[in-house]
Amino acid sequence: SVATSQSNLATGLMDLGKLEEAEPLLREALAADQKSFGPGHPSVATRQSNLATVLQDLGKLEEAEPLLREALAADQKSFGPGHPSVATRQSNLATVLQALGKDQRWYKRLEDSLNRWENVHMTSDGLSGLSFSFNPSGYLFKLFIIFLFIMFKSFAVELFIFAYSQIFCDFH
């Protein structure tokens, strides 16, 4: 669809740091999906979240907040409270609320989103054929997520690399 093409182009522009050029494309893609699917549809929620991300990065937090609230409500209705999309929307909203200083409950929202991931398990087979299961409810993983959401991206990456290396140390 045209909305998907616009969104894909906007994603490429975002990756290149051209947020001002991505914003109108995301607005058009959102409008098209709202017209096609109506409010509350998962595709509309995804477009709202993508636009909110760009708005947040552009410092337009007041515009991002209602989009994130609508996307969260839509995903809660579509998928239920335990779905990973709901956790992602909650954490994104918590980050915006914290940045705005509007809602001191942002930490609780972030904690709730982390707790939703406790039952998620990622499994991978290494090149040696060794299988492992990693539970994201672990202490280091939660620290990584918290720092990421509070915008300490460079430190969060270092912490994630450390946590990842600790997982594999058990297998050597």
Brief descriptors of the model:
about 170 residues; mainly alpha; two-stranded antiparallel ribbon; 8 helices
List the SSEs and their pairings:
Elements lengths: L1 H14 L3 H19 L4 H16 L3 H19 L4 H17 L5 H11 L5 E4 L5 E4 L4 H11 L3 H17 L3
Helix pairs in contact: 1-2, 2-3, 3-4, 4-5, 5-6, 7-8
Question: How would you sum up this structure, described in words?
Answer:
The chain is globular and about 40 Å long. Residues 119-137 have low confidence and may be disordered. Helix 3 (42-57) packs antiparallel against helix 4 (61-79) and helix 7 packs antiparallel against helix 8. Strand 1 and strand 2 form a beta hairpin. The protein has a two-stranded antiparallel ribbon with strand order 1-2. The protein has 172 residues and is mainly alpha-helical. The longest helix has 19 residues, at 19-37. 72% of the residues lie in helices and 5% in strands. It is built from eight helices and two strands, in the order H-H-H-H-H-H-E-E-H-H.
- The helical percent reads over 70%
Poorly predicted runs: 119-137
Strand fraction: under 5%
The N- and C-terminal alpha carbons lie at a distance of: 48 Å
What is the SS-derived class? mainly alpha
Number of strands: 2
Q: Which strands sit side by side, in order, in the main sheet?
A: 1-2
Order of SSEs: HHHHHHEEHH
Shape: globular
| Main beta sheet strand tally, sense and closure | 2 strands, antiparallel
